[in-house]
Specification:
By secondary structure, the chain is an alpha/beta fold. It folds into two domains: 203 residues, inorganic pyrophosphatase (n-terminal core) (Alpha-Beta Complex); 125 residues, Diaminopimelate Epimerase, Chain A, domain 1 (Roll). The protein has 14 helices and twelve strands. The strands form two sheets. It has a six-stranded parallel sheet with strand order 3-2-1-4-5-6, sandwiched between helices. The chain has a six-stranded mixed sheet with strand order 7-8-9-10-12-11.
């Protein structure tokens, strides 16, 4: 493993740097990536953010977004940048499989790889790791990396602060999760002092829905919500036909699972959606219930205790039945 002193020395002179994050990036993925990007360009580094796939339009306001390269739309350019890189920052993911086909290119690259992440059980592909499973967001770790490790907090300007604030806000569910500690609030206060406009960022991220997205949400809640009172569990199931009917685009399903979790007494919520080539699950839970254990054990996934995801190549009906069949195993935890 690379030590911090060596990394600091490397970053003291301009480097060719690629920053990447997991497929279908969310607010934390883009906030941490563009926050780091806006920091690095101030130091004269030749930095590029490459995302494995597209991402929601409500994140496109972030400073530096116009410079982002989407791998699936720019294969040759992305491959060349990865091959030529001196350093590759891997943010908000802990295994190369999380960046799809880009993982092969990153794995084969001779660039030094820096992981900044807060997910469980990181794979050993990195040369330097700044990792804390207790962090509420990778954007929180990027802030601490700049301030505590690189000792360059003075370069957290409005652009950096706005991106990092968005990352922390979204991954903490608007500062409502248990890991939103006093330290997190102190960091957020520092970001606001640096120029992040909290009210404006909230508007841009959360109050920026299309009419189609709202109608799709209404359908999910009125027609697709199922409450299993015996297990304090709620699930929303969506088919490919539903997605097509409402012209669902990237980002439209984000956060819908939280509506199921918001029901009084519910301890576990699932959003199960049929995609083109697989069925994907998003689980959310309250308290000590291990949503990540279910995803890891049964659905080829993982994540945090209260927020996890998985996938299956079985049919939508089979996945829903499998999910329901698992609940008796966890009934004691669900009804306590």
């Amino acid at each position: 493993m690379l030590d911090i002193a060596t990394l600091v020395e490397l970053l003291a002179k301009p480097q060719k740097i690629v920053i990447t994050t997991h497929h279908k990036p969310d607010g934390d993925a883009m906030g941490s990536s563009l926050g780091l990007y806006n920091y690095l360009i101030q130091l004269g580094h030749h930095a590029k953010v490459i995302t494995p796939t597209d991402y929601p339009d409500n994140l496109s306001w972030m400073p530096g977004n116009s410079e982002v390269i989407i791998y699936t739309e720019n294969l040759e350019q992305s491959a060349q940048l990865i091959a030529d890189a001196d350093l590759i920052f891997c943010l908000d993911f802990n295994a190369l499989s999380r960046i799809n086909n880009m993982g092969i290119l990153v794995g084969e690259s001779t660039a030094l790889k820096v992981m900044i992440d807060h997910h469980l059980e990181p794979a050993d592909f990195d040369d330097f790791r700044y990792w804390d499973i207790n962090a509420c967001a990778t954007a929180q770790l990027v802030y601490k990396f700049i301030v505590d490790e690189l000792h360059n907090g003075k370069l957290i300007n409005k652009d950096v602060a706005s991106c990092l604030y968005a990352g922390i806000m979204t991954d903490s569910a608007s500062f409502s999760l248990p890991n939103t500690t006093a330290e997190v609030h102190r960091i957020v206060a520092a970001l606001i002092d640096a120029g992040a406009q909290s009210y404006q960022i909230h508007q841009l991220v959360f109050n920026n829905s299309t009419e189609g997205r709202l109608r799709f949400l209404g359908m999910c809640l009125s027609e697709k919500l199922e409450v299993l009172n015996d297990y304090n569990t709620a699930l929303i199931t969506v088919s490919k036909q539903d997605l097509e009917k409402y012209n669902v685009i990237t980002g439209d399903t984000e956060g819908i699972v939280n509506y199921a979790l918001s029901i009084t007494g519910i301890r576990l919520a699932a959003f199960i959606v049929e995609r083109t080539d697989m069925v994907k699950l998003s689980l959310r839970s309250r308290g000590e219930f291990p949503a990540n254990e279910i995803c890891k054990k049964y659905f080829n996934g993982g994540g945090h205790r209260n927020a996890a995801g998985g996938m299956s190549t079985s049919s939508l009906e089979e996945v829903v039945n499998q999910f329901k069949s698992i609940l008796p195993e966890y009934k004691k935890l669900l009804i306590q």
